[in-house]
Amino acid sequence: MSVRLAKRTQGISPFYVMELLRRAKQLEAQGKDVIHMEIGEPDFATPQTIVEAGIRQLKTGEVKYTPAAGLPELREKIAEFYQTRYSVMVDKKRIFVTPGASGAFLLALGASLNPAEELLMADPCYPCNSNFVKLFDGKARTVPVDATSRYQLTAARIKQHWTKATKGALIASPSNPTGTVIASDQLKQAIHTVNELGGCFYSDEIYHGLVYGENATTALAFSDNVFVINSFSKYFGMTGWRVGWLIVPEEFIDATEKLAQNIFIATATHSQYAALAAFDEDTLAELERRRTEFEARRDFLYEALLRLGFEIPIKPDGAFYIYANCSKFTADSYQFALDLLEAEGVAITPGKDFGTNEANHYIRFAYTTSIDRMAIAMQRLEKFINKG
Amino acid sequence: MSVRLAKRTQGISPFYVMELLRRAKQLEAQGKDVIHMEIGEPDFATPQTIVEAGIRQLKTGEVKYTPAAGLPELREKIAEFYQTRYSVMVDKKRIFVTPGASGAFLLALGASLNPAEELLMADPCYPCNSNFVKLFDGKARTVPVDATSRYQLTAARIKQHWTKATKGALIASPSNPTGTVIASDQLKQAIHTVNELGGCFYSDEIYHGLVYGENATTALAFSDNVFVINSFSKYFGMTGWRVGWLIVPEEFIDATEKLAQNIFIATATHSQYAALAAFDEDTLAELERRRTEFEARRDFLYEALLRLGFEIPIKPDGAFYIYANCSKFTADSYQFALDLLEAEGVAITPGKDFGTNEANHYIRFAYTTSIDRMAIAMQRLEKFINKG
Predict the structure, then answer these.
(1) Which pLDDT score, from 0 to 100, does residue A388 have?
(2) Which of A140, A310, A335, B3 could form a disulfide with A133 if both were Cys (CB 3.0 to 4.6 A apart)?
């Protein structure tokens, strides 16, 4: 390795799924049909109401910088959304519009995490979350979790792993890759424990809205002393627009604003204007139809995988992922994913992209494609397993 | 200060001009006319060809994630631009599309700068540049510069200030706030010196294109072993779209790609499609008309300020700024700016936003407004000075 590379770049691993994606593209270029169940991006286009709001803004020709914290009217609408959806009051001064949840993580950790400080998070978890910690030369202290805690951290686990170096804890619910929503009480206790310990609590809520049982509770329902990361990408169907938001504890407002001025200047203007339409009645009605469709897909995929012999210790109730134990078929889930792609043209994500906790026994299926396509994928998967 | 705030946030100062902006808005709300000469954003709207390309993309409804490094066709077009404009060949693998120059700085420094390492840069310089260094817990080692080196670093200064802690040097040309372009030979020698010392060279070229004499030379003309930061914001008139680019030395390609995947996922899709039209013949013709207009404004403002008694030791040849010595009128340029705004409704940026090197003697005028408006501003300024 070049001596000029920053040391942090060693700790940041590339996504294994990228190798699969590269191979999938090659196969497709050869004319082979590949069913994509590896992608964390909904197949639905952005709702038309949002697209039209974006076009209206562009037609004005005025695509200038907005304030660093975001368009005041968008921050206002986000605050209203917390009132109507969660019955929670949030001071809009605490709300920052960001370039996706990525930008929200940058601000939250940039404002709070010192080098060598540690953040507790579940294993498995989304790899970017620990990589953001490494970006600021902190340490992601992953805690193995299983179905007994819905693959989520608990107050007990947080206490058990807390050291002098610990800055805080991160909980992502619904979780990527497991799709599980943390129990309301479990979240509340985790937050109170972190607050008692004097740390920072980060709540990754980017899959909120995509929940197929009781609504997920926001961390803000239990405390104002939390960072909440959210996004218009997943539930609102705005992936490529790169717009999300961050809510910070009061004491972090000034530092977050300074960082936003310096790190982004501002979030893309037309994306922010488009997002203003995300809370319209028509948009929300369309999103509700999509949520119902995702739920049907979840049910289809869950039943199909169980029938094939995969173990899914807990039925996922959110996001668009199923994290399935494939140890009945392989001791190396990455090889399993590579072989499945090669033999049958079905792309999935290996467990090792999400940590080391039993990662070789797990694979993630994303139901970001239609039931018709998934039905074909299941036939191919069955054929692959029976051959193996 | 809260003990939970990251220490780096202390080192990052807010922009003093924000205070002026806040006051300017209050005055405008009271019905007072304020002439804005503090803003680093062109008054021109985005060229129509670019806006239309953005609208076309939105109408497809497919605003999905692009690859982390950017749309392949946009990277290709950027590579072509280096060939046609600078006669320089750049491997498109080295080109990363980013959310503005801000995103380019994040990647470049994230991939190369370790905590406690130092970066040499001129004082005065754009404050975000040193703040990016602080974001990664590095140190911005500013070197006082003056008109004798066109307010730019020289090879001699770099050698003189180089220590074991130095990671590299940053040169921004045309410079913000001074508007000066580095002499071609001076740039070449600076790059060779940094290369010989085994450091990293960062060339901030975001005002390229806005040059009113001989074309500015890109650092890539002298070495492939450089980071080049550029943007569609200034010359191409795409501020609010948040799209720029970064070119890295070959050995940094993999690390930069990993960081891009984790830090942004990707740059806004519709902004990238819009930027595809930035290199069209029609667009470039329109940009050339604007460049000529900026040149006329520069000439007008330069003459007017000299006539009023401001000292401008070197006529700026790029960007849209004039950095003027106001020590004939005040020993505190920040107070001068506040008083001028209050008395006459003219907003300018105090020198202390750009460093400490004689900062109290300087103010920055941005000619991002029309000659007609600037003419009124000069009348008001004259009145203010004569009263004072």
Answers:
(1) 67
(2) A140
Pick the more confident residue, A22 or B244: B244
**Cβ contacts of A335 within 8 Å, gap of 6 or more:** none
Q: Do A240 and B113 touch (CB under 8 A)?
A: no
Q: Which residues on chain A are in Cβ contact (under 8 Å) with B268?
A: 99, 240-242, 268, 271
Do A269 and B114 make contact, defined as CB atoms within 8 angstroms? no
Task: Please tell me whether residue A28 adopts helix, strand or coil conformation.
Answer: helix
pTM of the model: 0.96
**Partner residues linked to A349 by β-bridges:** A364
Alpha helix ranges (H) inside chain B:
8-11, 16-29, 48-60, 72-86, 100-112, 127-135, 155-161, 184-196, 253-263, 269-275, 281-308, 333-344, 371-387
Q: Give the best residue of B1, B2, B3, B4 to mutate against chain A (max A CB count within 10 A).
A: B4
Cα atoms in the Cβ-side hemisphere of radius 13 Å centred on B345: 15
Is residue B242 within 8 A of residue B99, CB to CB? The reply is yes
Which residues of B, range 187-246, sit inside 8 Å of A by Cβ? 198-200, 238-242
Does this complex have an ipTM over 0.90? yes
Which residues of chain A lie closer than 8 angstroms to B136, CB-CB? 6, 136-137
Chain center to CA of B41: 10
What amino acid occupies position B75?
Answer: R
Which residues make Cβ contacts (< 8 Å) with residue B335, sequence separation at least 6?
Answer: none
User: What are residue B183's phi and psi, to 5 degrees?
Assistant: -65, 145
Mutation pick from A25, A41, A64 vs chain B, by most beta carbons of B within 10 Å, is A64
Q: Domains of chain B (ranges plus CATH)?
A: 9-45+283-387 (3.90.1150.10), 49-280 (3.40.640.10)
